[in-house]
Amino acid sequence: MSDTASPAIKKKLSCAIVGATGVAGQQFVEGLQGHPWFTITHLFASERSAGKVYKEAAVWHGEGSHPADIADMVVLSTDDIEREAANIDIFFSALPSETAREIEGRCAAFKPVISTAAAYRYDDDVPILIPEVNADHALLIRKQKERGWKGFVVPGSNCTTVGLAIALKPVMDNFGIKRVIMTSLQALSGAGYPGVASMDILDNVIPYIGKEEEKVKKELVKIIPGTYLVGATCTRVHVRDGHTETVTVETEKPCTPESFMAAVVGFNKKCREQFGPLPSAPNETIVLADGVNRPQPRLDRNTHNGMATVVGRIRTEDVFPNSISFVLLSHNTKRGAALGEILTAEYLYKQGYIA
Amino acid sequence: MSDTASPAIKKKLSCAIVGATGVAGQQFVEGLQGHPWFTITHLFASERSAGKVYKEAAVWHGEGSHPADIADMVVLSTDDIEREAANIDIFFSALPSETAREIEGRCAAFKPVISTAAAYRYDDDVPILIPEVNADHALLIRKQKERGWKGFVVPGSNCTTVGLAIALKPVMDNFGIKRVIMTSLQALSGAGYPGVASMDILDNVIPYIGKEEEKVKKELVKIIPGTYLVGATCTRVHVRDGHTETVTVETEKPCTPESFMAAVVGFNKKCREQFGPLPSAPNETIVLADGVNRPQPRLDRNTHNGMATVVGRIRTEDVFPNSISFVLLSHNTKRGAALGEILTAEYLYKQGYIA
Amino acid sequence: MSDTASPAIKKKLSCAIVGATGVAGQQFVEGLQGHPWFTITHLFASERSAGKVYKEAAVWHGEGSHPADIADMVVLSTDDIEREAANIDIFFSALPSETAREIEGRCAAFKPVISTAAAYRYDDDVPILIPEVNADHALLIRKQKERGWKGFVVPGSNCTTVGLAIALKPVMDNFGIKRVIMTSLQALSGAGYPGVASMDILDNVIPYIGKEEEKVKKELVKIIPGTYLVGATCTRVHVRDGHTETVTVETEKPCTPESFMAAVVGFNKKCREQFGPLPSAPNETIVLADGVNRPQPRLDRNTHNGMATVVGRIRTEDVFPNSISFVLLSHNTKRGAALGEILTAEYLYKQGYIA
Amino acid sequence: MSDTASPAIKKKLSCAIVGATGVAGQQFVEGLQGHPWFTITHLFASERSAGKVYKEAAVWHGEGSHPADIADMVVLSTDDIEREAANIDIFFSALPSETAREIEGRCAAFKPVISTAAAYRYDDDVPILIPEVNADHALLIRKQKERGWKGFVVPGSNCTTVGLAIALKPVMDNFGIKRVIMTSLQALSGAGYPGVASMDILDNVIPYIGKEEEKVKKELVKIIPGTYLVGATCTRVHVRDGHTETVTVETEKPCTPESFMAAVVGFNKKCREQFGPLPSAPNETIVLADGVNRPQPRLDRNTHNGMATVVGRIRTEDVFPNSISFVLLSHNTKRGAALGEILTAEYLYKQGYIA
User: Fold this and answer.
1) Touching check for C86 and chain B: CB below 8 Å?
2) I need a surface site. Which of B19, C119, C253, C354 has the fewest CB within 10 A?
3) How far is the alpha carbon of B303 from chain C, nearest alpha carbon, in Å?
4) Contact B201, D200 (CB under 8 A)
5) Across all residues in chain B, what is the average pLDDT?
6) Do A100 and A213 sit in the same domain of this protein?
7) C46-61 pLDDT, tens per residue?
8) Domain that holds residue B48
9) ipTM of this complex > 0.90?
10) What does the alpha-carbon distance between residue C102 and residue A111 come to, in Å, rounded to a whole number?
11) Are residues D151 and D163 in the same domain?
12) Order of strands, edge to edge, in the sheet holding B177-186?
C-alpha cells in the first residue's frame, strides 16, 4: 500500500467492523492496519463482547497480538448501530450467517455495507462483486434504493469461488466457456475457528464441505453469466491457508496453453489499468506460477499479499475438442475474505458509490 | 483369509520376493504372512543386502518389526536367480523401475513373475491385470511364450489407476463411458521411502506427481478399452496411506445415482461369484460409503483389509447430458501394490497359469 | 484375549456403559467386543440420546462403524440407573467430569463402578488403581461401605499418569526414587472430541494442558507413595494417539541402564505371574523398545493391543549422583482409558470385589 | 534493520557465502538482503554448482524465489577461495560438516570466517559465540593467530543450544546454576533438506536426534562455564520451524518467577545497551511470553524477526530446594543459524575484529 496512490484523499473514511471479534472480523482489523484511505473508528459485536475493550473481547488468532491502536478500543453492541451510523462511512461486515441478514439490513438503511457473509448474495438486486471480474455489476446497487435503504449491501463471493472466477474470466472473454469441472482442496481456515477438529483431519482428507459446491455454482454463474455447466467437488485437506483448485474447462473456441497465458497477460494489463491505483489491488491479478509443481499453498499463498490468484500446471488434455486445464491457488482468508472486500470498498469509493 | 477356501491345496507354492528389502518388498512380506496357498521361500535383493539376514538387511517400515519367521532368512543376491529358479513357483517383484526390466526378464525366463513395477506394463503382449476388471486379458500371457520365456510377467497397474479402473468398470458395462475427469489426492506412501520430504508437505499440497497422469491415462485405456478421453490431475496431500480420487464421468446412456449403485451391487455379486474363493478377494469389491462425507482415508482405507475400493458422494451434476460423479478411495500400498498382486497371483494360479 | 483364560466363567457379567455415546464411552464399547468375561447389556447416556438406538445416538469416532451387535441397542437415560441396577454387574463410567460425581455415586449405591473420570480420584477412601502398580490399594474399597454404598467407585488414573507410574514402579522397588522430572508430548485424542482445533496444532506445539501437571503429581504420589518431588511439563503435539514422556529420575541407590533393564524384566515376570491370566493383561507390562530412536507413537502405540508401556532411550546422564533417564510411550485411549479400566475390572472380579 | 544504526558505515563489507546453494546457505542469502553494513559479493559452492548462475544452481527453499539481485550471480567453486580472498571481508560458512573443517581453514588463512558448522566448535582456541551471552569469549580469537591464520573461525552454537544458553544466562548471573534438565521438541527444518521423511514424522514424534544431546551439553558448558550438570532429551516433532524446550533449573540461590522475570528485564536492558546498535539485534533478547499456553512455535517463532528467545510457563515446582522451570522457543533457522551468525559478525566488526 502506498499513500501516494491517492494524493487527493484528505480525510480517511470512518470504517465500522461489524462482527469484529470473530476470526473474519479480526482479518478486517488486520487488513485495515495502515490503510491509506480507511480507518477503523467503530467495532461492533454481540452483547457478550459489548463494553469490553477489543483485546479483552477477542482472543487474537493471528500472529503476534491485537494491533496496538485497536487493542484498547471499546467494542460496541450491534444495538448501537443506528445511533452511530451518522459517524460511519462504511460498514465492513464479518457477521455469521445467522445474524447477517437482519443486522446488515439495519446498517444498509444508513450506509454502504461490504460483507463477507452470504446473507444477501443471492438476492436479485445484490451484486456479488469481484472488481476485476464483474465491476459493471456495481450498477445493481442502485436498485437497492427500492428497499428504502440510503446505503446498500455488497457481499463478496465465497472464498472458493473468487479464485475460480478470476481464473475463468480471461477464458470466458477470449475462448468462451462451455463447461467447467473443478475439484477444490481447501484450507482449514476456511471453516473458521474452532472449525475442523484436529482429530478429523490429521492423516486425512474430508471429501465434503456442506453447501460449498452449491455456493460455487450459484455464485459463479451470477458473477460470470454463461457458466451454468459446472461440476464441483469440494474437499478439505491438511493445509492452514490457501485453497487449491484443479480446473478443467471445455471452451467454445480452441485454447492452447500459450493462448491462455497470453489471455492472462492481457487480462492483467487491463486490471492494472483499471484497478492499479487501488491500494489493495495486487500487482498482477493472476500470477503464472513458475515451476512444474506449483502453485503450492505454503509457498505461493502470500503472493502479492495474498491478493493474487496463482495459476500453474497449464495444459491441454485430449478430453474435450477444445479445453484448457490448470491448477489455481487463492488465499481464502485474504483475497477470499477481508482483503478482497477491502479492495471492493476501494473500488466502490473511487466510483463514487461511497461518499 | 481362510484355510478352508481351498481344501485341495496340498503343498504351499514357493514364493520368491525380488527387491525384498525395500518398502514395496516389505509389503509383500507382510501380505504373505499366513497365506493359505503361498509361502515365502526366497528373498532376493541387491548386492548390498545379499548374505545378510533379512532383519539386518531391511529397516522395517511397518508397525512392529520384521515377521518372526522371515526375520532370520538370509537374503540372496539377484545374481542367484537362475540358480534358484527351479525351487521357486512364483516371483513377486517389487523392484525399482531402473532394474525391473532386466531382472524380471531373467526371472520370467523360468517362472511366472507378478510385479508392482512398471517395466513391462506397456508392452503389447503384457496385460495389466486387475482380476475383477479385465481377467480375460490373462490370455495375453500365452503370447509371451514368443519371447522364449517359460514363465511370464504380469504387472499390476499404478496405484492410482487400480481404484479408478475398478470404480469405472460397472459404469462402462452398464452405461458406457464417453469421458472421465479425475483429480487424485494421493498419499505419501505412494512415493516410497524416504519419498516426500516432510518440509515439502507440512501445511501444503503438491499439485504434481511426475509421470503419474500419463500412467493413469495409458493404463486405464489398456485395462478398460474405450476410456480414451481422460483428464487427470494428480496431487500429493498430507495423508500417509490411501489415495482419494474425485471422478466425473460422462456416460453414453443416462446414469442416476440409483442406477449406478444398482450397477455396483451387480458388479460386486459377479465378482463374488468369480473371485470369492480367492483368499485375498475383498468381501465386496466396491464398498458404497456410508455417510455424506465419506470415504475418508483414515477411516476407510483398511476396509476389507485394504482391498476394497470405497466409493461415496455419488451424485449427478448438470454438467453433461448424462453423467455420474463420485469420490473413491483405494489403499495404495495394499490394493494398489502387494496385496493386489497377491490376488492376481491367486487368480492366475486357480486358472492354471501358475503350476 | 482368549476364552480359555478362565474356563470357570459360566455366565458373562452384565456391563453397563454410562456416558456411552461420547468418545470415551465408545472406547469401552470397542474394548468390550468379544470379551470372554464381560458383555454389554446397558448403555446409558444423557436425555438427548436416551430412547435412540446407539448407532443413531452416537457419531462413531473409531475406524469402520458401530459394532454390529451394539448398533441397534437402545440407549437409556441415566435417570433409569436405579431401575436397572439389579440387572447390572459392573458400571463402566466414561462420564464427563461435570456429571460424574453425582451419577457415579448413584451407580455405586448399588454396584461397582469402574471409571475413567476424575470425580472421585482424590477422595481418601478411593484408590486410583493400576493393577500392576498398586493392586494392594484395592483394600481401600472396603472403606467406601461407610458411604452407605453397596457398590464402590474405582477410577483409573489420568492418561498421562498411568505410563509414568508403570515405568517408575520397578525404579521405586529396586532403586528408590528421590525426584522425577518429566515432560510429556501428548496426543490429540487425550483432549477428547472435538478437542483441539486443527488450526491450533497444525505446524505447532501447545506447551500447556490445563490442570494436567497438577493431576500427574497428585495421582503419582497417591499411586506410588514417596514420589512427592515431581516436576512435570505437559505439552500437546501433532500426534493422534499415544503419549510420549521424557523422564529423568534421581534414584536413592545407583541405577545403571543394565540394572534398570534387569529390574524391568523382573517386574514383568511378577506381573505375568500375578495378572497374566487376566484377558486384557499385556504379555509384557513394560516393553523395552528395540532401536535407538524408539519408542515412537505411530510405530509403538499398539504394542500388546495398546496395553504395554514401551520404554526406550534408557541411559544415565551425569546430572545426579544416581539417576536413570528414559522415554516412555503409553497409549492414552487404550491403556490410559477404557482398556486400562477393563483390566482393573478383571482384576477386581478375580479378587472377589465384583460378584 | 535500519540504515541509521551506523551512520559511519561508508562502504559495505564484501561478504562471501560458502556453501551458498544449500538450505543453510540460502538463509544467509535471505538474511543479508538489505543489510546496512554487509553485501554479498561472492557465492561459493561445490564443483557441481560452480559456473552456474545462482538461480539455476540452487533450488530455492524459502517462500517466493531467489532474491532478484543474487539470482543471476555466478556461483564460484570453493577451489577459487584463495584467488578471491583478497576481495572478501567476511566469509559466512554454511558448509556441511564433512567439508567444513578443511574449507573453513582455507578461508581463515586469509579472512574472518563466521560459521554455522560444528567443525571448529570444540577446539580450545575457538569461541562458540553468542554475543549476548559470552561476548568476552571473543578474546580467544587472538589465540588463533598461532595457527598461522590471518583470519579466524568463529562458529555459532548448535540451533538447540542457542536459546537455552540465552535463557540460562540471567539465571546463572543472578541465581547460580546447579543443574539443568531440558527436553527439546525440535522443528523439522533443523534436519536440513530433504531431512526428515514425511512418512517418519506424520502422526509421530521421533525421540532421538543423533549427537544432538552431546552437542548441547558440550556447547553449553563452553558458553556458560559452570553448567556441567545437564540432562538433555532431544526429540523431533511435527513443526516446520522453531525449537521448543522445556527447562528445569536447580539454582544455587532461591529463584521465584518474579525474581527470574526481573532478572530477564535486567538482562534485556544490558543487552540493549551493549548490542542495541547492531542491525540484527532483537529489540528484546528474551521476550516474556504473554499467555499461559505460550510460547508456541507457529505463533511466536518470528518474534523480533526470529531473533528473540521467547520464554513462558515460568514457575517454580517443588522438585528442588531452589529452582525455576520454564518453556522456551527459539527460531532454529534464524537465531539458531544464519541470522545469529550475522549478528555475531556485526558484533565482531564493531569490536574491530573484522576490518
Assistant:
1) no
2) C253
3) 7
4) no
5) 95
6) no
7) 999 999 999 999 988 8
8) 7-156+338-350
9) yes
10) 55
11) no
12) B230-236, B177-186, B243-251, B323-330, B309-315, B286-288
